[in-house]
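From the shared-data thread, chain only:
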Amino acid sequence: MGGGNVAQTRAITLHPIGYVERDEGDSALSTDEMRLRPARILLVPSLTEGLLGLEPGTDILVLYLFHLGTGYSLRLHPQGDHGRPLRGVFATRSPHRPNPIGATVVRIQRIEDNLLEVVGLDALDGSPVLDIKPYVTSFDTPYSPAPSRVRHTDAESGERDLKRGES
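Structure, as tokens:
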């Protein structure tokens, strides 16, 4: 598909498969603190069978909507810190984006019927969940043409190369 602006593209419709539930007060936490606390994903009951094959201890990718965001800017200071250089929105993890979609890898702690209890989720209470996918190393590890090195990108502060096994 060629270039163009967002207004010229076709609209799509997505329907939530569930919603995030968090304990009262979690929304006041920093993103890092929020990820340490368990959260629940309440799946639409008719989709419960789609959880077959997932189990506690499994890592999954959760795609969700930043439902409280309003508007976006194509250039911004990461985390609103004006001491950091301007970046394009696609070089940041900002929730203020043309399509306000979040993606986080989480670990399943418990599954009961259509309820997933997870840890590592940075979505707010009430966030619509758009999809859940298993974390699969062959798909989710960054591409690297050189098998001895993996390129890790820190979207907020820059890039660096690491030998496999380093962190």
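Strands lie at 18-21, 38-43, 59-65, 75-76, 87-88, 101-112, 115-119, 128-134, 149-154, 158-163.
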